[in-house]
Amino acid sequence: MKKILVMLFIAIIAMAGTASAYQAVLYDAAGNNVAANPVLLKPGESIVLSYYASSIIPAEYNQFFEYTIEEVSVRAGSPATADASDVTIEFNTAYNPDGFIPGGASYMDEGVITVSLDEDAPEGARYYIEVGAGGETVEFQTASRTIETIPEFPTIALPVAAIIGLAFFMQRRKEE
Asked: InterPro entries recorded for this chain (predicted)?
């Protein structure tokens, strides 16, 4: 009975350690919260993001961890021509928590992730990206964003101009 209780106690501690994973968030290049989700990009545009992690334990301070692309996928409702390859994610360094934000074991790696949208990405497409950082024994939590393509100005302006023109034309005919 004693062995079973010890094994149960060890299992609970192991699960608690797994549950207290690092928390990660993507911010803009300057380290400000990217309030908008989805992030709106025109085809051919890029955005630079920062990776923020908290709950880092002292044993991981000043170590280098590789960034990883966990997922790039097309969201439901996107045009059929949308493809995950429309999005490119690049990292310009490894994750190295060497400078900490005051008040806790957290670190902002500023301006290290570049997300680019292909020139041929269809308008109205939505993409989901998820990145993480980690090493052989440490895995930081992944952080994600939705990227949405916004239409070019003529795509919006021409229909609006046509409707206004029709309204003026109909008004003119009523007056005659």
From this structure: PEF_CTERM_C
**Burial readout 153-164 (b: 16 or more C-beta within 10 A, e: otherwise):** eeeeeeeeeeee
Q: Is residue 11 part of a domain?
A: no
Q: What is the CATH number of the domain that holds 71?
A: 2.60.40.10
Whether the model pTM is above 0.85: no
pLDDT 10s digits, 133-142: 877 766 666 7
Task: Assess if residue 140 is contained within a domain.
Answer: yes
Question: Is the residue at 128 inside a domain?
Answer: yes
DSSP code, position 114: E
The H or E element that residue 176 is part of is: none
Question: Reduced to 3 states, what is the DSSP secondary structure of residue 95?
Answer: strand
Give residue 128's domain range: 21-169
Count of domains in the chain?
Answer: 1
Lookup: tokens for 32: 């400000």
Structure tokens at 26: 């993507």
Q: What is the C-alpha to C-alpha distance for residues 129 and 143, in angstroms, rounded to an integer?
A: 8
What tens digit of pLDDT does each residue of 18-53 get? 333 567 888 887 777 765 567 888 889 898 888 888
